[in-house]
Amino acid sequence: xxxxxxxxxxxxxxxxxxxxxxxxxxxxxxxxxxxxxxxxxxxxxxxxxxxxxxxxxxxxxxxxxxxxxxxxxxxxxxxxxxxxxxxxxxxxxxxxxxxxxxxxxxxxxxxxxxxxxxxxxxxxxxxxxxxxxxxxxxxxxxxxxxxxxxxxxxxxxxxxxxxxxxxxxxxxxxxxxxxxxxxxxxxxxxxxxxxxxxxxxxxxxxxxxxxxxxxxxxxxxxxxxxxxxxxxxxxxxxxxxxxxxxxxxxxxxxxxxxxxxxxxxxxxxxxxxxxxxx
Length: 278
Known about the structure:
- This protein has 10 helices and 8 strands.
- It has helices at 26-38, 60-77, 91-99, 114-122, 152-169, 191-199, 201-207, 222-225, 234-246, 257-271, and strands spanning 5-11, 43-47, 83-87, 104-107, 128-132, 177-180, 212-213, 251-254.
- It has an 8-stranded parallel beta sheet.
- The longest helix is centred in the N-terminal third of the chain and has 18 residues, at 60-77.
- The two termini are 21 Å apart.
- 41% of the residues are buried.
């Protein structure tokens, strides 16, 4: 089984769907970042603008203010090798984040902004770029969708093939691009959309060399387990994440890296029995 990197989710927001407001205070955010790193998140994914359908937009200067101190703390005080991902789509944030040489740029609009592309073109440093598919191609998740479960993977693959060609033609190295097919309301309110993508994740992986999946605590899981709150979806999250891991997904973005890391180790132990003692 190939290596799979874990992104630990850290929302510096007031209205994220499962933990909004918990980490607005810098001291709480720093403690959570340390916890995520110690729990197995090689990459900490910092987001300061919620994509929740009901979230209010945050001014760009506030978004960056929330991010910068934590970036500085991680780069100064955390062990060497701790990677940072910035979950944003704003050109001004990208420009400043590149100055810190952040490791990943996680863009829910799949680099819709021409200004962002121009910033990357003109930079001596290009982070890894996570492109996420969204049916609305806007800066937040929207429930109403025209996607159909039976054709959703065709739609996503066609979109990413075109996007990949555009970015490579503009000088963005293909090996820097990571593809996220989107989940939950980014695909639409119908849970079958997300489950259809998971069922065809092998096809997606064959089409695109580097793949990221983020299913953590998302509402589509309730179609299988009943309508329970986000914080009670831990087991359902892990089941979906392990399915992705065992199907070769390269990156998994999660709220709970410890349970995922432990499950991955158990899976490896089972598949490679000679690695441990009976």
